[in-house]
């Protein structure tokens, strides 16, 4: 007599496997499996960027304090090329702190970005990629007013 009991699972939410919860004849517990993470696994420490927004003066060396209004960072992606306008949206929001520093963790939402990638077609004819199947993306951060949609331009000094 076969004492094994088949536990049937099904995928109802993409990336999440649900199985019946219960105890089989062998005393083992079946349970719901955790959903797949959208983040890079394992995370890469060198994909975490600590930086700061600055507003340089016209001389390019001195810092201007910047606009006197709350700001936010929007970080959409350009996929399929290195140049051009964003065409993939923001994968993971980036918090711009009051002192204009931020942490951009490229591990977050990595699988979402992977799904957004398209075949590489450089707009610059002199550019190529090897292997030909490689996909490229570039994050393109913008500084915006906290409640606006137009990018902040460098304040005149």
Report on the architecture of this protein.
The protein is mainly beta. The protein has 2 domains: 1-36, no CATH class; 45-145, no CATH class. The protein is 4% helix and 26% strand. The chain has 1 helix and 12 strands. It has one helix at 110-116, and strands at residues 9-13, 16-19, 22-23, 29-30, 48-52, 55-56, 63-64, 71-74, 77-79, 101-105, 137-139, 142-145. The strands form 6 sheets. The chain has a two-stranded antiparallel ribbon with strand order 1-2. Strands 3-4 form a two-stranded antiparallel sheet. A hairpin with a 2-residue loop joins β1 (9-13) and β2 (16-19). The longest helix is centred in the C-terminal third of the chain and has 7 residues, at 110-116. Residues 1-31 have low confidence and may be disordered.
Short summary of the structure?
The chain is mostly beta strands and 157 residues long. Helices cover 4% and strands 26% of the residues.
């Amino acid at each position: 007599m076969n004492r094994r009991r088949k536990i049937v699972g099904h995928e109802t939410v993409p990336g999440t496997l649900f199985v019946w919860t219960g105890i089989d004849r062998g005393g083992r517990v079946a349970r719901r499996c955790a959903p797949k993470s959208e983040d890079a696994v394992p995370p890469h420490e060198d994909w975490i960027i600590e930086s700061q927004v600055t507003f340089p003066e016209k001389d390019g060396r001195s810092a201007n304090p910047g606009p006197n209004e709350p700001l936010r960072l929007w970080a959409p992606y350009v996929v399929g090329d290195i140049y051009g306008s964003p065409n993939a949206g923001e994968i993971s929001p980036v918090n711009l702190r009051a002192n204009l520093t931020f942490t951009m963790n490229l591990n977050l939402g990595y699988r979402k970005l992977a799904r957004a990638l398209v075949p590489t077609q450089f707009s610059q004819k002199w550019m190529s990629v090897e292997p030909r199947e490689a996909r490229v993306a570039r994050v393109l951060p913008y500084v915006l007013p906290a409640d606006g949609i137009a990018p902040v331009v460098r304040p005149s000094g």
